């Protein structure tokens, strides 16, 4: 009997932050987050006790917010849906190969170490590391890649996608979601607020984190796509979810909402750095900032959904994975990366230094 030619075994690993499954896991999740040197850049001897303190202090208020979503975060089920959709698209695109999509969360289950063992058991020829963060930051993508590189010792050539701030399907999915909300607001003056998760300003000014620049790249592309169809729109970038005493990127989303109220316009708000629904969209944008807009008199207050399993976005992820496998063309590294950001240190899948 002659053996059929076997295709490649390809593992695609989706990186995300992770979220607590229930009330009891809120504190250990917060501890893992604040104990990451990418989040608190202090030596372990200071950072670990500080992480214990912050996670204890924050536990009750965070639990109350997770309780508003049924007790825990929907991030894992949402990410599983994206993984399933991507696996279907990639197996169709790469027929002959066997593609499996895995999920590695940074701070809660399935944690990186567990996924690394699963991927190793799969025995891949190729491993594509694909962050569910369109914009690169040391606090998210770099942290996940470092954890992965420390945990994975299985087979295969590893190739990492650093970022895709201006990938066509991602931009178009955003433009469509915002366009639908602008249609709902027709006849009422509104400002499109592109709300990104903030990071400390020092990471950008002192460490050259390209996150802010890549947020601006995404926003410029989305605005261009919308304006090509509807003409000029009123829009602004703002940063949500500020934590701790340091100066974060600004303006903050609450400041931007207050300004919209002062300017006498309503708001169409869109999450521009998140690709699925979770606490930052369902609680912070929908509830907290919705109440603020109401209080300050900015109306209407409409929120565009995160892209989730929108086919345009899943196609953009598939395209990033396929181009990482072939390493042709500029995507996924060319668009929006700072030329001096060590020209993407993860280009070859392993951290260069
Ligand atoms: C682009 C994505 C994200 C960046 C950048 C980011 C930076 C960052 N986050 C914190 C602190 C917290 N983040 C929390 C939750 C959380 N953050 C992101 C994404 C980014 N974070 C996600 C996807 C989630 C999970 C949401 C869920 O549903 O569970 C939390 C916990 C929630 C809370 O208590 O507010 C904290 C804390 C810092 C300090 C930081 C950059 C330095
Ligand atoms: Fe966060
Ligand atoms: Fe890059």
From TrEMBL:
InterPro entries: Ferrochelatase, Ferrochelatase_C, Ferrochelatase_N. Fe(2+) binds at residues 197, 280. One of its GO terms (cellular component) is cytoplasm. Its EC number is 4.98.1.1. It catalyses: heme b + 2 H(+) = protoporphyrin IX + Fe(2+); Fe-coproporphyrin III + 2 H(+) = coproporphyrin III + Fe(2+). It holds the Pfam family Ferrochelatase. Pathway: Porphyrin-containing compound metabolism; protoheme biosynthesis; protoheme from protoporphyrin-IX: step 1/1. It is an enzyme of class 4 (lyase). Signal peptide: none annotated. GO terms for biological process: heme biosynthetic process. CDD domains: Ferrochelatase_C (cd00419), Ferrochelatase_N (cd03411). It is found in: Cytoplasm. Keywords: Cytoplasm, Heme biosynthesis, Iron, Lyase, Metal-binding, Porphyrin biosynthesis. GO terms for molecular function: ferrochelatase activity; metal ion binding. PANTHER family: FERROCHELATASE, FERROCHELATASE, MITOCHONDRIAL. Catalyzes the ferrous insertion into protoporphyrin IX. Belongs to the ferrochelatase family. This is Ferrochelatase. It comes from Brevundimonas intermedia. The gene is hemH.
